[in-house]
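Subject: mismatched residue count in predicted assembly?

I count 947 residues in my input, but I want to confirm that the predicted structure covers every chain. Input:
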Amino acid sequence: MENVIKVEHLTKDYGEGRGIFDINFEVKKGETFGFVGTNGSGKTTTIRHIMGFLKAREGIVNVLGMDAWKDSCKIKKFVEYIPGEIAFPDLKDGTTFLKTQAELLNLKDMNYANYLIEKLQLDTSANLKRMSKGMKQKTAIVAAFMADKDILVLDEPSTGLDPLMRETFIELVKAEKEKGKTILMSSQMFDELEDVCDRVALIFNGRIIDIADMHQLNNLPYKTYKVEFKQREDYLKFKRLKYEIVRDQEKYNQVTIKVYTKDYNRLFNTLKNYNLKFIAEIKYNLEKHFKEILKKEYDRIDNEKLSQEYNNYQNQDKEYTKQQKKKEKQELIIEKNEKFFNKKKEDEKKEEDKKFEIDKKEFLKSGKKDKKLRLKQQKKEEKLKKEKKDV
Amino acid sequence: MFSKALFKQSMKANWGKWLAATLSTCIMLAIVIIVLGNLGINDIRDSLSDVFTQADQESYLKENAIDSYDLYLTSVELEGTMQNLDNETTKTAYEYIIAPYLKNIEDYKTNNGGQEPDTQALEEIRNQTINDDILGNPMTWLVISSYLDISKEQATQLLNVVYDNYEQDKFTVEDAQFQTKMITLIKTTYLNYIYIYTYQTSLSQENSTETSAEYNAQLMQEMIEKAMQSYQAPVGEFDKTPYKETALSSVNEMLYNSTYTMYYDMYIQQGMTTEDADTNAKLYAVTVKVLSNTAISTYELWLTELGDVEGAQEQARTKASASITDQIPEKVAEALTELGNMDIYSLIIGSIFYRIAGLLMPMVFVIMTANGLLAGQVDSGSMAYVLSTPTKRRAVTVTQMTYLVVALFAMFSLLTVTSVIAVWVSGGNSFAINYAQILLFNLGAFLSMFAIAGFCFMCSALFNRTKYSLGIGGGITIFSLVCTILGLFGSSVVPSAMRISAMNFFNYLSIITLYDTVSIMGGTLSYLWKFGILLAIGVVTFIIGIFRFDKKDLPL
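Triage response: the counts match. Full output below for your records.
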């Protein structure tokens, strides 16, 4: 089967962890593909890429072998779309809107549209602005389906519909599927996807974490049963038989067992002899499946977070020790420097003292010399005076 | 490249806004033009210019009164001088004026065999004497023109009078009464001169007829004659003082009489009853009398105040003859003159309606519609319905642009029709704004809105959020309009009394400044290249918007 929609490594990073990352999937011809995920997980962003409203930053989005961005107009000839956010153009009522839409689609035959309107019990004469959410959704469904194109891209198409209408809608989608149309549909309701889809992708935080095959899920090789016995003896006796017990509730004499197809007869033959309070099959559905996966994912994330925190802590610790060492080193250097300076100062002081003493000695010496000279002169003068007197 | 369905959708979504903007603007425009056309908005201007004319007349009248007063006194002085004239001077005058005439007659007689000249010949002789001997002699002419302020023509007229008078009593230098006779001759000439002079000045005055001028001249002549007769002090330095009072009352009386006659005749001609004409003319005459009295008194006061300063007389004359407008400060007078010349039609229709008031509603329409055509639909998400059909983004933008331009064009077409009809109702080409100008006004307004629409459309195409598209596109547009309003107070269309030239700065901040209504009204062509710029702005912004919208992410 050929691929109608093909998405490879699609990435659009809006920053702060928001956006979609490395999305890969394909929708084959005639297949119904579901998208499920929490709010803001990236379903709508992926769909907008397929519709050619957003340009892929990385990766490829192909519809019918054409680039979703470049050939967006050609692709629209084969695609009908229900937007996730319902807002209509500024027109008077539903009829005007559908007429305009038909004109834009170049659609002349309104029979199918009228069939849809009847089927959905839509009052098209209502004012577009005053429509209830469900009415708006119905109008959007008619606007999309009436063109009767090969590919359906539906972004949360059933929001706002009452339960009865939702069933009608799902019937409609099933009918479209039977016509051989390729459908891509996002939803927050597991049950409606379960009913319609061949495969369902789970998007979480912008990544596809699982694609579930509904055929596989519906045709598991085993079934799970919950059995409660009236008497304690029976309960204990049953436990001794070799059945795979998933859950054991002693208090209520209750066991939950997993039985493979080949063991069905054996089980029911065995149970003939027991006094049962009740026996019930526990269905394994999409919701359970994804919840398990999500739980694992959360655990993984928690682990990651924990390990990251641990790492962070360790890193912080390392850094702290590093800084401590640095500080110590610096302190050492400062000490060394101080010692060096002190020594230098002391040396300088000593040298100065020495110099001072030398200077002192010299000064004293010169002083003594002067005294001797003065004495000599005095003596000379005295001699001269004496000689004068004598003369 | 064009989606009919989308065009229809845009039309359905916006027709209400379009109709509201168009109708309100059309009504405003019609009211403005028709009311202006019928109210006589230029009344103030006309009355202002009346004030100025009246002031001019008043000033002229005062000057006239002062001149007559001066003339009166001068004439009295002249009388004194003439009475004291000595024999020699009169003889010289005789030699210069009478002698050539007599000599020419003698020559004629000798040439024609002693025959007396007839009237025709006498006239020829006179002309010959006047032209060749007197006026042809530069010395003689210099003397005459220094005494009397007259042209050669008037001099000829005067000399004819002299000869006429001489013919009546032919006297010679040997005559016993020679001097008295000569002086009488000069006096007669002088009085004739006064007559001619007054006649001329009277004729140059507004509202005057030949009859009134004649009357004025006669009155003046009589007054001066009386003035000369009243002179009594034959000896010593001439003293004006005793004559001043008589001069004042004579001039007042003369002006009163002349004005009364003039207006009385005018009123009678206009078909008034004699009684009404009399009262009304009296009213005017009294006003004139009061004015002349004031002017002369002020003149005298100024003369005494200024003393013997050089040009004192001229100064006093100017001060005394000043009208109301001469007394107010020059700047105020200028402002008033400008106010009188201001064209209120072009101010209100061109600069206020077409550039401000008339643009407001189209602007609101453009801001809202441009936003709603792209950004609004992207923001709400409704664009998804158009783009999920096989419609290219380019087709969406081109269609929406076409809608916006067509809507604007239709709006201004209606506005043009309205304005043309309104002008036609107000008197067509005789209205202050003619058809060509009103068409240019509409074209300019359309081009301004085209540029603004381009800008708003570009903003709408650039942003995914209404708040940014409206905030920037609408914000800048409204800012432009407000700047135009503020800039108006600094622009040349506002009279200088109200103008604050610093406010002109705001005009540089507004795109609407390129819509040059002053140039359109003034008949210059500078508005043409500005129109070109507006067109270019519109085209470029539209193109930027279209190309940008092709390439951006849409949250649909």
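Residues 43-83 of chain B form the longest helix (41 residues). Marking this ticket as 'not a bug'.
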